[in-house]
Design goal:
By secondary structure, this protein is of the alpha/beta class. It is about 45% helix and about 15% strand. The protein folds into 2 domains: about 10-185 and about 225-250, Rossmann fold, CATH 3.40.50.720; about 185-220. The chain contains 8 helices and 7 strands.
């Protein structure tokens, strides 16, 4: 499908690997120029090379922590007039709520609530002027379904969802859409790290843990960064201009709900 995105400019946060990279690749395939972001310069360089070689689009790299003012300014300097913003950031490590001190709480809110709001504030004036904008926030299934130990991540991302529920309707008359992608168990490094922890704690093999967790999902498998990215690209497309304020689950049916 032709998505109508050729020549559009996209900032994709935390995009050197995993779901962010999947989004960057799908947007590049659709013809967007891409600004990649991450903290590991070597990994970013490799991702840039792969995307440029495969899709022939312009790719810029910003090595920075997107949660810092300096990191945000570097992103916007690399792409002052983005048509597309994909908000993504690492979440707080798994920890019981009783172990979270004030510093950890504030850091989690900064990463998963404050940072995306600040970037949206920065890019929407230009989007309004051009009459087009696509904002996609990568949140989590845990916004809808509590996951033990991820209370801080869930709370901060749910706060972002509620905050933007009104904002997206203010932006809709200007041709700007705001939607959220909620990944479930995706086959990424983060998920694999969870397998390793569970295997160590239980004394079972990583393969056994992986098989057990996959069996809990109605689709009987984990999601891929590629299919996640393709969903993101569609939400950024010309055809998705009437979709805004939505929370799209990509979880293989794991969350049991009729609505």
């Amino acid at each position: 499908m032709e998505l109508g995105l050729k020549g559009k400019k996209a900032i994709v946060c935390a995009s050197s690997r995993g779901l962010g990279r999947g989004c960057a690749e799908a947007l590049a395939e659709a013809g967007c120029s891409i600004v990649l972001n991450g903290r590991d310069e070597a990994v970013l360089a490799a991702t840039r090379s792969t995307i440029e070689d495969q899709f022939g689009v312009e790719v810029r790299v910003v090595v920075a922590d997107v949660s810092t003012r300096a990191g945000q300014e570097a992103l916007l300097s690399a792409c002052p007039e983005p048509d597309i913003l994909i908000n993504n950031n690492g979440g707080p490590p798994r920890k019981d709520y009783s172990e979270l001190d004030r510093e950890a709480l504030l850091e989690g809110v900064l990463q998963n609530f404050v940072t995306p709001v600040e970037l949206i504030q920065a890019v929407t004036p230009g989007m309004k002027q051009r009459g087009f904008g696509r904002i996609v926030n990568i949140t989590s299934l845990s916004v809808r379904m509590p996951i033990e130990g991820l209370d801080l991540s869930s709370g901060a991302r749910a706060g972002l969802t509620a905050f933007l529920a009104g904002v997206c309707r203010q932006l809709a008359p200007h041709g700007i859409t705001v939607n959220n992608l909620l990944p479930g168990k995706m086959d990424t490094d983060r998920l694999k790290g969870g397998f390793a922890r569970a295997a160590e704690q239980s004394g079972r093999s990583i393969d056994a843990v992986r098989a057990e967790q996959a069996a809990e999902i109605p689709a009987q498998r984990f999601g891929t960064a590629e299919e996640f990215g393709q969903t993101c690209a569609f939400l950024c497309s010309r055809q998705a201009g009437y979709i805004t304020g939505q929370n799209i689950l990509l979880d293989g049916g794991l969350f049991p709900s009729a609505f």
